[in-house]
Amino acid sequence: MPNFASEERRVLSGDELDLATRSRKPAIATLSDEALLRLCEDIGAARDKAASDAQSSERTKFLEAAFKRAANERRRRGLKISASGATKPKPLPNPDGKAAATAPAEREKSPNTAKTVAATGSRRKPAARPAKPARGARATSTGQGSDRRGAGARTVPAPGRPARLADANPASKPDAAPTKASAKTLQSKPGAGTTRRSKTRDEAAPVAAPQVTPADAGVATPALAAAQADTALVQKLTEKAERRAVKAEKARKKADKAARAADKRGTKKAAKVAKNADEKARKAQRKARKTTRQARKAAADLG
User: Fold this and answer.
1) Within a 10 A sphere around the Cβ of 163, how many other Cβ atoms?
2) How many whole angstroms from its chain centre is CA 170?
3) Which among 191, 146, 152 is positioned nearest to 166, based on CA atoms?
4) Where is the sequence biased in composition, kind Low complexity (predicted)?
5) Engineered SS bond to 43: which of 67, 182, 263, 281, CB 3.0-4.6 Å?
6) Concatenated DSSP letters of 57-75
7) CA Rg, the chain, in Å?
8) What is the pTM of this model?
């Protein structure tokens, strides 16, 4: 079975091997965002340099795998590489509270900038007019009774629903002088003095979302624990595949030795021994290939 670690140590240089090692879990999970972006840039530069050499196809293959692992971790964190290829430091706040002056190169505008701004400003959407208040709300704002005639059918609030804040606090409204029409209405309709509920509803105040307390920094995250478990599984399968490959090689040597002995002696017993040895060697090779496939699959899932 091919040993990936030994092949990387044989093919890659010291710096490239360090980059490939840092791109694997759990080492990559402990990197900060800036360190992860810098690692992606370094691996990409090393990969491009190796790709320019036609005789370094194996180096390009290993560096490409390392770059994919780092890029997957970067996408999982939601990080983006800037256009310049490096992370730009955040500007420090101005102690005077004023915005810092821009560079002369940034302040320069093309000669068509003013025309573009003017053309864009002329196509701006006009401001929306404020919506007209409801009939009951307009009557309340003008100081007239909300139960005056001609205002339409009276709306009774549904049971179990809270009334409006403005209607529930009559002390907040100015006292309006009763008119003749309102006095006549109060005398003719019992209970007509109750305030009619407006058709418009007040929007409910937004409820602040509960703040989630961050986990203790000393406790290992589930993602890190899972990465460590996957790494241990890959290492275990790799070692098992190596052991089975050694056993298969020994069994094949024994089978070849038994075959030579059978050819030399020419007896049925020697031929039977050679046949059994060959069957054992084939079985050992099948086991070694199976474990090798399992190790490769686990390594691909981890990377």
Assistant:
1) 11
2) 52
3) 146
4) 128-139, 205-217
5) 67
6) HHHHHHHHHHHHHHHHHHH
7) 40
8) 0.29
